[in-house]
Amino acid sequence: MDEKKFGLAGVLGWPVAHSRSPLLHNYWIRQYGLQGSYVLLPVAPGNLQAALSGLPALGFAGCNVTQPHKVEAMALVHEVDANARAIGAINTIVVGPDGALRGMNNDGFGYIQGLIDASPDWRADAGPIAVLGAGGAARAVLMALAQRGAKEIRLVNRTQDKAVALAAAFAGLVRTLPWESRHEALADVAMLVNTTNQGMHGNPPLDIDLRLLPLHALVSDIIYVPLETPLLTQARARGNRTVNGLGMLMNQARPAFQAWFGVLPEISPELRHLMEQSI
Ligand code: NAP
After folding, report:
1. Which pLDDT tens digit goes with each residue over 60-108?
2. Which residues line ligand 1 (CB under 6 A)?
3. Which of 130, 153, 208, 276 lies 20 to 30 Å (CA to CA) from residue 217?
4. Angle, vertex CA 238, rays to CA 236 and CA 241, nearest 5
5. In ligand 1, which atom is closest to the CA atom of 246?
6. In contact, 14 and 68? CB cutoff 8 Å
7. Contact (CB, 8 A) for 15 and 66
8. Mind listing the pLDDT tens digit for each residue in 10-31?
9. Domain 3-105+247-278 maps to which CATH number in 3.30.450.40, 3.30.70.100, 3.60.40.10, 3.40.50.10860?
C-alpha cells in the first residue's frame, strides 16, 4: 500500500465513543474505492492543543471536532474561514500540505441541506420561524437561516440573556422572547426548530404546547437520538410535517469528506438506512 495515498481522518471529542461519524465516513471511503480510515480520537479537555499539533506528523488529512472542543479549537488552528468565524466555533479541521490547520464549520450547510433533502420545497422566507435554544448549534442554525433569506426569527431560550447575546449578531432579523412565551411564539410560524437538548436520549421531552402552531408549519428537531423525539411524535400526530436531525449530521460530513478525500460524497438510501439502524 502507498502510504502517501492512505487518507486518515477522525472525530476528536470527549466523550466520543458514541459517534456515528466513523460509520458514515468509512462507508464513503469504501463506496468511492479510496484507501483510508476514519477513526475515533478521544481527547480529554486539556489535551486539545497537543492533539491538534500532532495531526500533521500522524499523517491526518484532518478531523472533525465535537464537544467540548468546538470553540477552543478555533483559537488553536492557523486559519479559520469566514463562516466558522461568524459562527464562533469549528467542526472540521483540514491539514494543509505545509501542515497548517484550517478550521471550517459545516453545521449550517448540513442543517439546510438536511431540510431540503427531506422537504425539497422548503424556503427560509416562507414565514416567521421560531427557534428554541441558544447554544452552540443554534448559532449555526441561525446563521444558515439568515443566509437563506429568513425574514423573521423568534428566538426563545430558557436563559433569555443567552438568546439576547446571540440575537445581537442578527439585528433586525432575530427577536428574543422569554421562555414562558414559547407556546405563544408558535402562532403564525412557517417553521419551528428545536435546537435545545430537550427530547434527546437521556433528557426529558421538550416542554411545549403546540396548540397555536399552524398545521402547515414544518417542525425540525436537530436531535437524531432518538430519530423521532417526543416533539416530532406530537407534531406528526397533529398533522405537521417533521424533519429529524440525522440529515444535518450526514450533510455536514459531506464538505469535510470532500476537503480530506477529494470527493463530494452522496447520501445513498443504503447509507441512510445504515445510519438509522445504528441509532
Ligand atoms: P448546548 O450548546 O449545550 O446548548 C443546549 C441548549 O439546550 C441551550 O439552549 C440550553 O438552554 C437548552 N437547555 C438545556 N436544558 C434545558 C431545559 N431543561 N429546558 C430548556 N432548555 C434547556 O448544546 P448544542 O451543542 O447547541 O446542542 C444542542 C442539541 O443539538 C443536542 O441535542 C445535540 O445533540 C444536537 N445537535 C445536533 C447536531 C446534528 O448534526 N444533528 C449538531 C449539533 C448539535 P440554556 O441556555 O438555558 O442552558
Report:
1. 999 999 999 999 999 999 999 999 999 999 999 999 999 999 999 999 9
2. 107, 110, 133-138, 157-159, 162, 195-198, 200, 222-224, 245, 248-249, 252
3. 276
4. 40
5. 41
6. yes
7. no
8. 999 999 999 999 999 999 999 9
9. 3.40.50.10860
